[in-house]
């Protein structure tokens, strides 16, 4: 198994992509520290992971609160002794509509959950990984990270910032043997896309609404493919890859392993201005 005995801390693990990643990790032999605000949903994920033979612990945490995140990391270490993989999946879509019409508190809250939550989680786990000789950090990016999502300014801004944070952290942590990569899952039918679809209809964004209907109507990306990418990034197959955005839909990641030295010698899979 590709993640045998690896300890993975996954935020936003109660449902959706976080749950899918947790179950994929469980199937590959990982031990799981599952975190979110809703304990009931976490217990459901944990039960499914245990049915696959995984050791699990459930940790209620709010990624926007420093003390809560620090306790989350501490509880994971108390349970398993170390953290080998951190998956920063917790996220919200935030307000939908023109920026000047967005609720200010909702806009700021989106940045707090998506970006600040990722920062706080990394900050709490990095010393643990460094003490253990290294690790892997996987930051969930998303729709709008590499293109401008109309009427989703808070969400798009936060997800683009996560990619740049990933790149910077990869440089800072290279001497600690900690690889940091971003995962683009594609437009998957989760509750978030139901919220986007409803919100687009409310503000009269026909294009976003129709695309949302395609996603929620069965035309979305594969959640299993996104989970498989998370496994790949956490596994030995991705050794040496860091500071990159890998997309579950657009990239042929199962065949990238031989290309990693070439990728790391270039700007491929990064956010860079095209000077051409």
Overview of the molecule:
The protein is of the alpha/beta class and 276 residues long. It folds into two domains: 7-186 and 222-264, Rossmann fold; 191-220. It contains nine helices and seven strands. It has helices at residues 16-27, 39-50, 66-80, 104-131, 153-172, 191-203, 206-219, 223-234, 260-264, and strands at residues 7-11, 31-36, 56-60, 85-88, 135-140, 178-184, 245-247. The chain has a seven-stranded parallel β-sheet, sandwiched between helices. Helix 1 (16-27) packs parallel to helix 2, helix 1 (16-27) crosses helix 8 (223-234) and helix 3 runs parallel beside helix 4 (104-131). The longest helix is centred in the middle third of the chain and has 28 residues, at 104-131. It starts with 6 loop residues before the first strand and ends in a 12-residue tail after the last helix. The model has no long low-confidence stretch (mean pLDDT 94).
């Amino acid at each position: 198994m590709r993640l045998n005995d690896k300890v993975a801390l996954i935020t936003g693990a109660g449902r959706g992509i976080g749950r899918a990643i947790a179950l994929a990790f469980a199937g590959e032999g990982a031990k799981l520290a599952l975190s979110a605000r809703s304990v009931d949903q976490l217990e459901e994920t944990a039960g499914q992971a245990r049915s696959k033979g995984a050791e699990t612990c459930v940790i209620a945490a709010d990624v926007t609160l420093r003390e809560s995140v620090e306790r989350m990391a501490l509880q994971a270490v108390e349970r398993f002794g170390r953290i080998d993989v951190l998956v920063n999946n917790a996220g919200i879509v935030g307000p939908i509509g023109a920026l000047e019409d967005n609720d200010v508190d909702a806009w700021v809250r989106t940045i707090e959950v998506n970006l600040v939550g990722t920062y706080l989680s990394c900050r709490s786990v990095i010393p643990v990984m460094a003490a253990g000789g290294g690790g892997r950090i996987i930051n969930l990016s998303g729709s709008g990270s590499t293109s401008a999502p109309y009427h989703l300014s808070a969400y798009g801004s936060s997800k683009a910032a996560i990619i740049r944070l990933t790149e910077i952290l990869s440089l800072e942590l290279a001497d600690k043997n900690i690889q940091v990569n971003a995962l683009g899952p594609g437009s998957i039918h989760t509750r978030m896309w139901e919220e986007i679809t409803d919100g687009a209809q409310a503000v009269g964004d026909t294009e976003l609404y129709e695309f949302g209907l395609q996603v929620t109507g069965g035309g979305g990306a594969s959640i299993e493919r996104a989970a498989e990418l998370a496994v790949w990034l956490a596994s030995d197959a991705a050794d040496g890859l860091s500071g990159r955005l890998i997309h579950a839909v657009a990239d042929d990641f199962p065949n990238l392993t031989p290309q990693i030295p070439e990728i790391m010698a270039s700007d491929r899979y990064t956010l860079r201005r095209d000077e051409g």
